[in-house]
What we know:
Number of domains of chain B: 5
Shape of chain A: globular
Radius of gyration of chain B: 34 Å
Number of domains of chain A: 1
Largest interface: A-B, 22 and 34 residues
Distance between the termini of chain B: 65 Å
Oligomer: heterodimer
CATH superfamily of the largest domain in chain B: HPT domain
Shape of chain B: globular
Order of helices and strands of chain A: HEEEEEHEEEEEEHH
Amino acid sequence: MNLREKLDEDLLEENYEEEEDTQEDKYLTFVISKEEYGIEIRYVTEIIGIQNITEVPNMPLYVKGVINLRGKVIPVIDVRLRFGVVERAYDDRTCIIVINIDDQSVGLIVDRVSEVLDIPKSEVEPPPKVRKGESSRFIQGMGKVGDKVKIILNAYQLLFDYDKGAEL
Amino acid sequence: MVDGSYEEKLEIYKLFLSDSREMLDDIEPQIITMEEIALPDGIIDEGIINAVFRLFHSLKGSASFLELHNITRVTHEAETLLDLFRSGEAVISTAHIDLLIRAIDLIRKTLITVEKNFNDQGHEDEAAVIINDLRECIARLVAENNSPPSPKAETDPSLNTVADEVTPSPEIEEDFLSSPEMTSCFVEESRGLLDEAEKALLALERLPDNPEYADVACRAMHSIKGNAGFFGYGDLEEVSRQAEMILDQIRNDEKTCEAVTISFLFIAIDALRDGIQQVSQGLTPEVPGKKELVDYLNSLSGGSAGDSQNEDCTREQTANLKLEKEQGQPTAAAPDQGFVAKESAGAKQADNRTGKHSLATQQQAIRVDLEKIDKLLDLVGELVISGAMVASTLTGQQLERMEKAVVQLDKITRGIQEVAMSMRMIPLNGTFRKMVRLVRDLAQKSNKKVVLEIFGEETEVDKTIIEQISDPLVHIIRNALDHGIESPEERKALGKPETGRVTIEAKHSAGEVWIVVKDDGRGLDPEKIMRKALERGLIKSEEKDFLKDEEVWKLIFEPGFSTAEKLSDISGRGVGMDVVKRNIEKLRGKVDIRSKVGAGTIFIVRIPLTLAIIEGMVVKVSNNRYTIPSNSIRESLQPKSDQITRTPDGLEVVSIRGELLPVVRLHEFYRIKPVYYQLTDGILIVIETDERKCCLFVDEVVGLQQIVIKGLSSYLGRVRSVSGCAILEDGDISIILDCDELINKVEQAG
């Protein structure tokens, strides 16, 4: 209520933004059937190995169930199934990337996690105009790193775009 | 203080709203008690009337701080009325109680507007009606009162509005719980305002014709008045009020701005500044010679400016006051002021004491955000689970000291859990007290005589339950009043006491809370209920003779059921009792009815102590473990082959002691591969909700467990036939089945 507190708040806010700044243009990349994908690092909270998954009835196929992450129950989705790629048995390189969007934690099951990359905006091309298949709607852009291309995913789309067409 | 960011404003209003509602909830039953006690002989319990008066006063203070004028005005009149009773000048009657209750209703209504719009505009007309009624009532009482006027009445005539503030009693101030931050905020702001006012006054002195300066000063005084009122600093409030009145007149050209007036205003500002200084030192401000100051200021604003005698007199008094201030002591020339000063010194001591007292009470209870408590509960739940996990990995290993430590840890964790849970528990008294008003209103409306007795209102229940139990209780009590209790004549003819009796009792019983509502009315008539149920097709005529009384009673919970011959204002439209049942079931509770024709009806509402922990049976199908709430389980058994019948379309039915129950194969329901396909190899769990039963076929039973219920992630949305999940001792998650929905689904499929 007093000025000092307000100032502190403002300062904090600035700090916060700075932190955000340092996260900009950084992507966590992972592999799904030979292709490399990237997701904005600011959504990622942690990466864990594959765990016991409890199945939840009446869910879409790609929702594998829920896991216990230190007492928190979080749902996990299989990104392969989300993309409509053939399912594959989990192995010791299979990872769960825990992301947090709008205060909701969700785990993404991926074949393996690669690295954290800096991809400046100038190196990100818009997604291809030609739309094909299940996964094109999740693409936010194509990031060029050297002569390789990483597919940058739209985390919102990945999580919240239920198969609306199918439901209606 | 009302200015500032939107969030701050929101916070202040939120606080005001919750406080005010609490106060109103508090006032209402007290007013009704007042009626009960006072009516027979007109003698009023002083404690109660003081309490009610205080609450109205507090409400007024906070409302005026937020500039909610309608509420301020209504509470003010109500206060004036109460004051008449308090001082014994008038005798209370039902009409007065009604008036006060109407005022409360209006305030409640206005609060809803405040919640939406941050102001109370739009209720002016209603407020005016009540204020008018209150004023008439007050005027009548004062006129009736022919005995010599009390000292208070003497100060009354010219300044009606200030009358009751002249003597702010210490109890009133005690009521305000102002946090140190609030106080320091008040001090800072008031100092700023005083500086502003002073600057404006100096300018005004130079340019007396410019109303703008008077306006600035006036607004500053107004703000100080409001804030001081909010904190219950009666002296500051009064001085600033008087100053504001004078400035208002100057601003509106109703009064010429003379040097003497300005000097008085400066004195007022100095006095206020001293007062603020006292506040900053943690004292309740006392303005030395306040009474005189107020009187002079008052005479300035009230008396005509042309009255030279008056002016001379004030001039002289100004000098006196100045002198007194300079010397820091009353002058010999004004012995009466000395008396005042002494008196105020004494009062200051008293106030110091009350100040300490309020500090002490402050420490006993603090407001905590429910979210924080829930978070704590979550964490404690996790602690319990991880403790159990540690313990389970230890078994079989030879670590004696470690084991001892784990046992100790477990004890402590459980202790913490208990305390954390108890933080969410609040007593039922608030809910029960609302019923006092309800019973009074209903009885009056239907011309019945009813007393309500409340037992065990201190019983504590989870906050979520409290929020949801009120509605069902209201319906049950309405039902008792409307259908149960007979009219006085009828009761007399039946040889019962004319006044009906309704009791509400709360008690703990084996991990549940029982709320028992009892009336001594006419009771439920099984014949009548069955006739109605037949009419509405709720039962078939061939069923009629097989129904037990308890089953008949339960019919009144069916949607659309009503035995009332005529629709009344209160109940009888057939909605209500089904709401009761549905709401209570939502809380995983139950309602039982006992009734005897002519003797009365008893409703027994049984609800769990808390919603967060339940006892459940963990069962296994393949590797999946599901939890079934124990309260839905009737029994579990391994069937013999001669108990099983299979219909041509594949429905399996098991006969248990002559009862035929359908079988639901959980593995089919969830499309998983079980260990056993033969019913005789696995286990059948008989579940029952709403008198509907079925058997769940599972591979094996793991055991009974206390489980902490967790919601499934909101990301998954609402999952059908699942009510949540629980973390088991080994850290795995188990899905909790919603038996009600499960049976529904199975029945629909069939």
